Amino acid sequence: QVQLVESGGGLVQAGGSLRLSCSASRRTLSLFTMGWFRQAPGKERELVARIDSSGERITYANSVKGRFTISKDKDQNAMYLQMNNLASGDTALYYCVAGSYRNGEMKFDHWGKGTQVTVSS
Q1: How far apart are CA 110 and CA 108, in angstroms?
Q2: How far apart are CA 12 and CA 106, in angstroms?
Q3: What is the rounded distance in angstroms from the CA atom of residue 44 to the CA atom of residue 58?
Q4: Any idea what the Cα angle at residue 104 is, between residues 100 and 108, rounded to 5°?
Q5: Looking at 3-114, which runs of residues are DSSP E strands?
Q6: pLDDT in tens, 8-43
Q7: Are strands 10-13 and 115-120 parallel, antiparallel or unpaired?
Q8: What b-and-e string marks burial along 84-115, b requiring 16 or more CB atoms within 10 Å of the CB?
Q9: Phi-psi region at 27: left, alpha or beta (left = phi > 0; alpha = psi -120 to 50)
């Protein structure tokens, strides 16, 4: 069973930083592609960043490139999202996800409950 638990959200001023953590088993981190989605009120859900099971293939949404960094540490049973130079547009509920390819398409079947990030201007 895949269990994902996010932490690290909070209120931060524009220009500040936060680091989100996602607690996951070593097995989950080794077998699945992991990622972070976010959803703001009235907006579509957005895949912010993803990292494959090997940790070698990482992709970011254009909106966060150069500001956010995704990483994982199997020894710590965790995945992270370091967020720098935050702006009001980054305010959202952030979800940790795990997925795998099926029929050539990535399916993120496993979701945490989310952690709220609020950026004040």
Answers
A1: 6
A2: 32
A3: 22
A4: 30
A5: 5-7, 10-13, 18-23, 33-39, 46-51, 58-60, 68-73, 78-83, 92-102, 105-111
A6: 999 999 999 999 999 999 999 999 999 999 999 999
A7: parallel
A8: eebeeebbbbbbbbbbeeeeeeeebebebebb
A9: alpha
